[in-house]
Amino acid sequence: MGVRLAVAGQGQVTRINYGDSRRPSESVRAILPRVLGYFKPYWKSWILIFLSMGVTAAGNLLPPLLAREIIDVALPARDAQYLVMIVAGTILVTLVTRLVNVGRSALTVSIGQGVMFDLRNELYRHLQQQSLRFFTSARTGEVMSRVNNDVAGIEGVVSTT
Known about the structure:
The protein is mostly helical. It has 5 helices and 2 strands; from the N terminus they run ββααααα.
């Protein structure tokens, strides 16, 4: 069982035991409502994302079904017009599915950037409310590291998740 020390702020050190099954779930339950709060203003966009996921799933199911139609119906019947219609339908379904995927990706990036914008603004407001004593006693490098690196780490999680 490994042990890691993490700085919790203002010189406090927290001990995190890896392998302790109770600790992560407690921290997740404490942090999850706060994290979800950042995504709450974007709920309409989330609905669009889930709808686009449904469209994509349906669009990915159709080409094999259309290929079956070509093999089982159009080719044995030697119906060229039906074959062209099925091939055109396959191309159209694939194109629409890919366009919906691009839109979903753009929307996901937009939400991620919006959440990061909100988080950075909240961090800035929090720093502005700190006393002069905080800035004289805190190490400049530590504050800058928190502002830059921690937010960048969160951005990686938000963008990819």
